[in-house]
Specification:
By secondary structure, the chain is an alpha+beta fold. It has a domain of about 450 residues. The protein is about 45% helix and about 15% strand. The protein has 25 helices and 15 strands. Strands 6-7-8-10-9 form a five-stranded mixed β-sheet. The protein has a three-stranded mixed β-sheet with strand order 1-2-13, covered by helices on one side. α8 links the parallel β3 and β4. The radius of gyration is 24 Å and the shape is globular. The two termini are about 30 Å apart. The chain binds zinc ion. Zinc ion (ZN) binds next to α18. Zinc ion binds next to α18.
Length: about 675
Amino acid sequence: MFRNFMGFCILASSVLFSCQNGNGTSDSIDDDGFEYTDERFADLQMLRYKVEGFENLTLKQKTFIYYLSEAALWGRDILFDQNGRYNLQIRDLLELIYTDEGVDRDDENFKGMEVYLKRVWFSNGIHHHYGCEKFVPQFSEEWFRQQVSKLNTDIADGEMNTICKVIFDPEYMAKRVNLAEGEDLLLTSAMNYYDGVSQEEAENFYGEMKSNYADKNHPVMFGMNSTLVKENGSLVEKKWVVGKGKYGQYLQKIVEYLLKAREYAEDEKQKVVIDKLVDYYRTGDLKTFDEYSIAWLDNTEPLVDFVNGFIECYGDPLGLKCSWESIVNFKDVEATKRTETLSKNAQWFEDNSPVEPQFKKENVKGISAKVITAAILGGDLYPSTAIGINLPNSDWVRKEHGSKSVTIGNLTDAYNKAAGSGMRNEFVYSQTEIDLLDKYADLTDDIHTDLHECLGHGSGKLMPGADADSLKNYGSTIEETRADLFGLYYVADKKMTELGLIPDTEAYKAQYYSYMMNGLMTQLVRIQPGNNIEEAHMRNRALIAHWCYEKGKADKVVEMVKKDGKTYVKINDYDALRGLFGELLAKIQRIKSTADFAGAKELVENYAVKVDPVLHKEVLSRYEKLNIAPYKGFINPRYVVEKDKNGNITDVKIDYTEGYAEQMLRYSKEYNAGH
Ligand code: ZN
């Protein structure tokens, strides 16, 4: 069962394009000397983001952000445990070896372990953050056992054997989230949301809970804040609440800092938001969580806002259990004018979309859109993060109260600033397209994100009796496809130039070109040879690109051409391509509105999953020569509090100098509530 709407979307098309040269080069430094790129390892590049405007906030706002950021950092270990039951134990051992003064740092095993640990930090566990496959350690089990034996830990032999099996046996806990059709998705996934429970058992358990729930129009999000375990043969739900059980001590600290922050809230409504959240963390009551979401939606005035909670359901193959995450942010007033324009015209976009009339919303409601500046990233948003947010997840809350949509301006900006020209020069068909991208791509990509988040996810409606959950493992791909198509269709609309959001009628071509090139070719750089496409956003992009390519083949709308032995995407008819985007949007909306599982399956399996091995090989080898890291993530800034002799906060300063390993080790130490 997948939820109707996903929370934070990772709109990574721009991320891919914003790839930089191997080692932070001078073009990733801005006029103020701020360096956007930091270290690089494995398939990862670390970046930094600038919290533009923080200095201009009031002391009260800065203090508010400081306490909220502490609450954001206290949940890190929760996510590690959610991602796999041995993650924290493994991280602790690796950190002990890493910081051991006696260890031989020149040993190849140590170097291999260092990279492994850096990847574990990045992924909040031992599986790849995006592909979900387990890391292959570049150090030997023998060496690892030797180091651990030198460490004075009280680890038992049996425990050590298990940990070694988890790290070194490639077959054991191989995938964090397995979405393969026809397998028991729970028993074959290493995520830690269920214990000894089969897919069928879990589906029946929550299916029953749902059908027994009295208020059919306002169902809570069953199962989102608990572990489902089997005890003496029967299923028991263990809720994550303050002070007891799993995560109890961590939630205790989170609540402590939320309450400190509360004193600096910007208005009374914001205090209510915090009170509801604290109440929910204490009781685990999901009705209270819905009340919190409604209060949060209603609180649009303050400059500073935050998300703190169990939000994302990508980490559970059934899409029920939510991973912990947090972001603290403040509004970018100037850039917000852009999304406000879209939001004000939401009904026009709904009415004029190519979707069949019966699937349109008569009243598009409560789309609040803004551009924000991220101040801290935590949990499932750190270090790998989203650049657009649309919350809450609850269908009925969205329907009756709307949603908050944001794009995170300073993160997108950091990606763009760190970008090099390598990808463009290698994969773009000709100078015409390169010029087009240079001129417009940053802007049109932002606009596409805005459309996706502000309007795309919020558009359309379900038919009476249709249950979006019945799209199951195809649900999130279909939902992301829908939002992306909405953006693609409208980025080319003359309404956009009328509204002053797009400068001219050529600009959209930059988005079309980069989207098709990414969906047909360049996103394959993120896939290991021989693997299929798994991640929902990647599937969505493949689906759109391949479907349009196939449908337009006879008219040569989009071609895959060879030049000097290399394959390129060539778009011959941008206008016809827009027509195809519109056609597919109508089709996807029909599938969504009628919860047509067979239709969803057919599209996803035919267009979104399989990879052409020959093209894949070519793309990988061209990409390898560019020496670019396919994934990026951020090092957080550090907030340093200044106090007077009475202990009152007199200022909060921002420090960007902390290194990646330094930050990770500090977080492991300072935000450890005893796991
Ligand atoms: Zn999305």
